[in-house]
């Protein structure tokens, strides 16, 4: 009878410890869930904040780049105008001081024909060079 009481007592103690362990696990899991939700919320808030900041920075950079591009375009236009003027002067000098075949080439480039207004559109046959 004494051993039955001891067995029941041990069994009761084991069940009590198992229940306590189960409660601790449940509390731990709930705590981890709560922590994970908090971290997720913080991550979402941080993502939204940083993405908003990134948009602002990108807009500022875009405006700066637009300004720099416009300035570069203006500088290039000024340079192109200078090169064009120098080129015309060079062609005039070449036309005056060159042999006849070179004068023909200079006259071709100096002409105001619409197809020759853009130097990139000039084809070899305009200056007598065969293909």
Automatic annotation (TrEMBL):
Protein name: Uncharacterized protein
Domain of life: Eukaryota
Organism: Nymphaea colorata (pocket water lily)
Source species taxonomy: Eukaryota, Viridiplantae, Streptophyta, Embryophyta, Tracheophyta
């Amino acid at each position: 009878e004494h051993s039955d009481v001891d067995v029941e007592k041990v069994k009761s103690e084991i069940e009590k410890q198992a229940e306590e362990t189960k409660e601790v696990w449940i509390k731990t899991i709930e705590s981890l869930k709560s922590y994970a939700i908090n971290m997720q919320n913080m991550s979402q808030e941080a993502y939204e904040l940083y993405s908003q900041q990134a948009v602002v920075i990108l807009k500022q950079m875009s405006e700066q780049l637009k300004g720099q591009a416009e300035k570069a375009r203006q500088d290039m236009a000024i340079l192109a105008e200078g090169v064009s003027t120098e080129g015309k002067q060079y062609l005039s000098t070449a036309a005056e001081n060159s042999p006849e075949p070179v004068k023909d080439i200079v006259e071709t480039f100096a002409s105001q024909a619409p197809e020759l207004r853009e130097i990139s559109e000039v084809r070899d046959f305009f200056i007598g060079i065969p293909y």
